[in-house]
Structure formats: structure tokens, C-alpha cells
Design brief:
The protein has helices at residues 2-20, 66-69, 86-100, 121-131, 146-155, 209-229; strands at residues 29-31, 34-38, 44-48, 55-57, 63-65, 73-79, 107-113, 139-142, 160-162, 172-174, 177-181, 187-189, 201-202. By secondary structure, it is of the alpha+beta class. Helix 3 crosses helix 6 (209-229).
Length: 230
């Protein structure tokens, strides 16, 4: 009797959601510039911004392209292995996200080194090993042409650049935020309590960990629904 009494409120809530449609489905916003495009049949659609093509090399020496990320949800970030300030805390908190969602097979992590001169493939592999994520095919620490990496930061609406005036920061400047990218290459984000689109998530502190985890779960749920409809 006690078990039934405890379960009753939960059952009522679930049934009310199912039959009323309330909290039916939450969707994250697509962000970035939009344009109107004409279809072959003469109708028009809104085309949302997509991440441009890229090609980098990960800690295993394998090439990673945008095509490799199609059909996956991923977290994009920027760092460098000798960073003396925010990078250690960023990747420490990102590892918490990674650990909480380890069973989510459609989620990836793409961390771009902004110091490719130093951060070679062996250095990145050792970095992943030290972080405790060496044997994974879901978190890639990538290197490549420096200007292409800086350009990719712009593509994600983040920042990454050399800064000789910030030697105490390792001579570089980069955002402490990460962005969420969906299976079609769209940047996605939630709205805050004031209705404003957040855009990026600050991972330098622990406060945004829950938001990232929750929103990756939302994207995963949406992707499963999209795959069923396709």
C-alpha cells in the first residue's frame, strides 16, 4: 500500500504529460545567420547556418573532417596543452560532461589545439592519456594549420588567436566557451530565463556542466526522433 501511495503522484504526472502534450518535446535553437533559398519546385525555405568544411588530425594521427561528424552531435572547444590558465579547468569540466554521457554513442568532443607548432600528434596523445581519456573514439584532440584553426574559431563564433601581450597566458587567447553542434552541422543552444539565446557555454567553471549535459540529452532525444522520421 505504501509503495502504491508513493508511486501514485509520479504516475499521475506521467499520464498528464502524455495525454495533455505538456512538456511534449524541447528543442534547442539553431543559431547563426540565416538565408532564404529557393527549392527546385519553386517553394522557399529558410536555410540555417552550418559549420564549414574542415580537416584536422587527431591524437591518433587520423584525419577528422566535417563529413566524419555528420550524423553525430559534438562539443567544439579550443585549448592548447601548455596553457597555464583556463585550459586545465575547461578540460577537467568537459571530462565531467564526457563521463556523465559516456553511454551516449552519438555524442563526440572536438578540442582544437591553437598551438599546432608544439601540440604534435604524440603531444596530444599524451595529453589525452594524462587526462584519462586516451582509449576513446569519441573525444578528439586535433591539430592542423594554425590559420585554419583560428578560422574555425570564427566559424563557431568563438575566439582564438596569438597574443604576444599575454605571455602570462601562454602567448595565446581563446574563448573559455564551448558550442554544441548537431548532426547536420548546425550550432544549437538553449534560451536563458529571459528568453535570450545563450549561444555558447562557459566551461571554465563547473556551473555550466549541468546545462551542457541537459542540452546534449535534449539534442540526443531530438536526433532519435529525426532518425525515426527519416
Amino acid at each position: 500500500m505504501l509503495v502504491l501511495l508513493l508511486a501514485l503522484p509520479v504516475s499521475v504526472y506521467v499520464l498528464s504529460v502524455v495525454f495533455s502534450g505538456e512538456l511534449n518535446f524541447k528543442v534547442l535553437e539553431k543559431i547563426g545567420p540565416k538565408e532564404v533559398v529557393e527549392n527546385a519546385d519553386g517553394t522557399f525555405d529558410t536555410a540555417y547556418y552550418k559549420i564549414p568544411d574542415y580537416s584536422f588530425v587527431n591524437q591518433y594521427g587520423d584525419t577528422v573532417t566535417r563529413a566524419d561528424m555528420e550524423g553525430k552531435i559534438y562539443v567544439a572547444s579550443f585549448f592548447f596543452t601548455t596553457c597555464p590558465t583556463i585550459c586545465p579547468s575547461m578540460n577537467f569540466h568537459l571530462k565531467e560532461v564526457y563521463s556523465r554521457l559516456s553511454s551516449f554513442k552519438d555524442v563526440r568532443y572536438l578540442s582544437h589545439s591553437i598551438d599546432p607548432t608544439h601540440d604534435s600528434v604524440p603531444v596530444l596523445r599524451q595529453y589525452a592519456r594524462d587526462l584519462g581519456v586516451e582509449n576513446t573514439n569519441t573525444w578528439y584532440f586535433v591539430t592542423g594549420d594554425k590559420e585554419e584553426i583560428f578560422s574555425m574559431a570564427d566559424a563557431y563564433f568563438l575566439a582564438a588567436q596569438e597574443d604576444s601581450l599575454r605571455q602570462d597566458h601562454g602567448g595565446y587567447y581563446h574563448s573559455s566557451q564551448v558550442v554544441l553542434v548537431d548532426w547536420d552541422g548546425h550550432i544549437r543552444s538553449r534560451r536563458d530565463d529571459n528568453g535570450n539565446i545563450v549561444g555558447a557555454y562557459d566551461i571554465s567553471e563547473a556551473k555550466d556542466i549541468k546545462a551542457i549535459v541537459d542540452d546534449l540529452r535534449v539534442l540526443t532525444k531530438e536526433y532519435r526522433k529525426v532518425k525515426m522520421e527519416r
